[in-house]
């Protein structure tokens, strides 16, 4: 145990201080570019599925798996996860603006309203969200990710995963497709390990005269940054695969909205619960949760409105449940 503690202590210390970031808007702009690239990639995947032209798959994967993450990761170095995660909802806005022209999909009034609410919610997140940037040691990250609140989140997410697996196997084709998008989005939103690695890289990148600025030693001398990178890559690959599967069954205007909606929810919750980003500004945390909730509810209730077949399924199940009761 003593050796383990020494390894952590020698594995790199970031200054355990919180400072207000005046460049949070740069993170929002970078994420706007990331969401635009991600939208293009997702639409290319959908176009490849509809037209059966396989040459569009590599193009879509480059946009979604390379360009989008590159800008997204850069955004995390300027703003907190609980700000960047809701900004991912801009994918829905780009999709609503472009899909009628690129994929010839029908744009309904509810989707227009949803896109407007998402845009408004993103602005609220930027203005009222948590602008505090916290530098932590490697062992502080381990303690952060092992807190009781974080463990409860992991347990609830495990229950959610089991539920998604059940409905994917036992549900109809419509239900299974919806679950694929919802679960893929919820996986993609768990980016707290990515945020941790980005902060460690930033610590090393700002080194002066061989000594990392704000670090006592190199955090990459321990195994934990590489474990975080592996977790981030695994979640990104699985979520991207699930999205590609979902786009083979549903139109982009629907599936992308479901995916991004659940990504926003899990990203906002994990940012506040696992990363503890709400603890430094208790008053602003309420505004932040409100803004994040506004975006998520807007997608769930308007932009991400269920297709008629899925609505009918839920109505029939409800009638059967009432009759049996």
UniProtKB/TrEMBL annotation:
Entry membrane topology: Multi-pass membrane protein
TM spans (from-to): 23-45, 83-101, 113-131, 226-247, 253-274
InterPro entries hit by this protein: EmrE-like (IPR037185), Mg_trans_NIPA (IPR008521)
Recorded superkingdom: Eukaryota
Gene Ontology MF terms in the entry: magnesium ion transmembrane transporter activity
UniProt subcellular location: Membrane
Organism in which the protein naturally occurs: Chrysotila carterae (Marine alga)
Pfam family for this entry, one: Mg_trans_NIPA
Name by which UniProt lists this protein: Magnesium transporter
């Amino acid at each position: 145990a003593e050796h383990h503690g020494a390894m952590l202590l020698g594995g790199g210390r970031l200054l355990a201080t919180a400072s207000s970031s005046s460049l949070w808007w740069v993170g929002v702009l970078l994420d706007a570019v990331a969401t635009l690239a991600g939208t293009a990639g997702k639409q290319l995947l959908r176009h490849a599925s509809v037209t059966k032209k396989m040459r569009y798959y590599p193009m879509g994967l480059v946009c979604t798996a390379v360009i989008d993450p590159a800008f997204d990761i850069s955004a995390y170095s300027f703003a907190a996860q609980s700000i960047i995660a809701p900004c991912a909802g801009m994918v829905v806005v780009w999709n609503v603006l472009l899909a009628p022209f690129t994929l010839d999909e029908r744009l309904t009034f509810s989707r227009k309203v949803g896109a407007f609410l998402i845009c408004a919610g993103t602005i609220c997140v930027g203005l009222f969200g948590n602008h505090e940037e916290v530098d932590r040691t490697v062992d502080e990250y381990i303690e952060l990710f092992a807190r009781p609140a974080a463990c409860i989140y992991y347990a609830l997410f495990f229950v959610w995963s089991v539920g998604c697996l059940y409905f994917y196997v036992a549900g109809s084709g419509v239900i299974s497709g919806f679950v694929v998008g919802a679960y893929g989005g919820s996986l993609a939103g768990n980016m707290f390990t990515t945020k941790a690695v980005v902060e460690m890289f930033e610590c090393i990148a700002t080194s002066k005269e061989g000594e990392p600025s704000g670090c006592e030693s190199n955090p990459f001398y321990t195994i934990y940054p590489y474990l975080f990178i592996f977790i981030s890559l695994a979640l990104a690959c699985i979520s991207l695969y699930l999205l590609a599967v979902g786009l083979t069954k549903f139109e982009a205007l629907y599936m992308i909205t479901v995916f991004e909606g659940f990504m926003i929810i899990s990203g906002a919750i994990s940012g506040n619960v696992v990363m503890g980003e709400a603890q430094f500004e208790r008053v602003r945390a309420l505004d932040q949760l409100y803004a994040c909730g506004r975006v998520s509810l807007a997608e769930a209730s308007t932009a991400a409105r269920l297709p008629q077949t899925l609505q009918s399924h839920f109505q029939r199940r409800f009638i059967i449940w009432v009759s049996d009761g």
